[in-house]
Design a protein that fits this description.
With about 140 residues, the protein is α+β, with helices and mostly antiparallel strands. The chain folds into two domains: about 1-30; about 35-140, Immunoglobulins (Immunoglobulin-like, Sandwich), CATH 2.60.40.10. About 20% of the residues lie in helices and about 45% in strands. The chain has one helix and eight strands; from the N terminus they run H-E-E-E-E-E-E-E-E. The protein has one helix at about 5-30, and strands at about 35-40, 55, 60-70, 75-85, 85-95, 100-105, 115-125, 135-140. The strands form two sheets. Strands 2-8-7-4-5 form a five-stranded mixed sheet, with no helix packed on it. It has a three-stranded antiparallel sheet with strand order 1-3-6, with no helix packed on it. It is rod-shaped and about 90 Å long. The termini are far apart. The mean pLDDT is about 90.
Amino acid sequence: MKLVDKVIKGLLVTILIVAIISVIYLVVIHNPGDGYTEFYMLDHNNNTTDFPTNITQNSIEKINIGIKNQENQDMNYTVRIKKNQSIITQYNKTLKNNEESLTAYYISSTRTLGDNQELNIELLKGNTTEPYRTLKLRYNVI
């Protein structure tokens, strides 16, 4: 075998080994990217099809608030539920990476008749005071 052939063969084997190591690094070891949190609202049947839009005065309706941690680390969350810029309730959740939480919330602020009333559900992440995500539910009290 000529010296040139041995050098080319060695170079190709080296490139192949580097390529295999790179693929293994990207698939197994590499950080998958920026984390995020899923924040969602479900109706009383855990669907997205039957949210309470017309609520009878002085009645109570149920929704479910979901959080799924995709942050690649354990995370502390605060959920604030507001109506007319006033906090109705607030609770904290600590979730491990890929852990999911579904919490029932009962809409009971139905004394005042009126259309287009709005419930704001805010998710705060870590120790921040500004919402990371916000959900809105509009409903009529009849």
